[in-house]
Amino acid sequence: MMTNTHRANCANAQRPGCTCSGCGGSQHGWQGWTSLAADRPEKRDDRRRELKKKVEEDGRSGRQKFNAHNREIYFDLARLDITDYLWAADGRTRINGRLPRDVEPTSMSSDLGRMDTLAHQVMENPWDEISAGIDSLVRNKADAREVKKRLADHTWCGLLVALIQLIEKINKTVELLTDTAKQFITDALSRRFDSGLPRLVTDAVIRLVVDKVWSALARLLEAHFPLLGTDTLRVLRMLAIFTCPSVEHHPEVYKHAVRPLMRDGHEIITDEIKTHVVTLFSAWWRRRAPEALA
Fold it and tell me: Is residue 217, in this structure, part of any structural domain at all?
């Protein structure tokens, strides 16, 4: 079996568009952002100063440029606002100035606790079995590594968005783990994921991912984790935003995670950053994917 390693720059989302075969995208971004949310406020203040220094301005007018670099910077500032919210909204006792990082299935006392639980149980923990399954499906090591890299190209944030859409549509927990619901997730992944190999292999990889995620969701339900409701939807939206390797190339994340979170009554993203994100991304989406604004 091929050994998989996970790079720190993937966990910390240090490179937009990252495609890491070590985790297939299942650990991209969210590990670093949730660690920052649990850290001392001065760590986030330092990060905010660093990001704001990187904003590009027009040399003549002094106005901020409408470019990919600034979209990336301001979206990271929006993520940073989310980490501030997670810290402030968490009533748990700080340990050495940091928040505890609960990963037990019953951890639901705070949004950060719920996010840790969902991310570990639904994304991180199933990865070893998914990776081993891909190695069995694709015997050639180089091809198997390429399939895992392609999974990192928006598969997990796409899965989270599909789960958000599913939860928005249903009223009872028993409706969540039906064959119809599972097919909805499968279809959503099929529209985006391409293994680069024959369609039969692609479909098998998608089934493998969905099966493992479905088993994880079932275990959460058995542990009485509340998968329905506004709290879980809010956490899934934040998790999708942390996980997505490049939001400007994923209109569904913007439509189903970013926009609802900017309207959230908890005022998670500050008005200043919200204004910049809306201005920069609205112009982008009108040209590239108007459905993101529908």
Answer: yes
